[in-house]
Amino acid sequence: ELVSSLTEDDPTAPPTAPPTGPFNMVPLKLADPSIIPLLLPGDTISVISHQPDTGLPATIASGGKVVLVGDTAAADPSTVLIALPQADADAVAAASLNTPLAVVLTGDRAG
């Protein structure tokens, strides 16, 4: 249900909703997995890293949706499956190869 709602145009969606269109799902191993119990499927998140030269935060992608959290025996407990537009999913997957990544909870539950 979550995945289908990501691919359909919804004229009543709030302005913070991610853009519609094809989405890809990307597994994300978090630098600090202690946030995982706080995440729920459907949560909106931003994926954050740091700039290597300055250490300042760098947003890799925003508007991602949590699809699955690694709380089952079959999944890595430090992994979150997120849905993002293809270009953002590619950027997150590439960044995860050589830099620690974190998520920031945004959207309705954030505030």
The oligomeric state of the chains shown is single chain
Q: What is the makeup of the main sheet?
A: 5 strands, antiparallel
Secondary structure: number of strands = 5
Strand content: 35-45%
Give, in order, the helices and strands: HEEEEHE
Proportion of residues in helical segments: 10-25%
Which parts are unreliable, with pLDDT below 50 for 5 consecutive residues or more? 1-18
Taking all Cα atoms into account, the compactness measure Rg is 14 Å
Question: What value does the average pLDDT take?
Answer: 81
Compact summary:
The protein is α+β, with helices and mostly antiparallel strands. It has helices at residues 2-7, 86-96; strands spanning 23-29, 44-50, 57-69, 79-85, 102-106.
Looking at this protein, list some descriptive labels.
111 residues; alpha+beta; five-stranded antiparallel sheet; 2 helices; 5 strands; 35% strand; disordered N terminus
Notes on the protein architecture:
With 111 residues, the chain is of the alpha+beta class. It is 15% helix and 35% strand. It is built from two helices and five strands. It has a five-stranded antiparallel β-sheet.
SSE layout and pairing:
Elements lengths: L1 H6 L15 E7 L14 E7 L6 E13 L9 E7 H11 L5 E5 L5
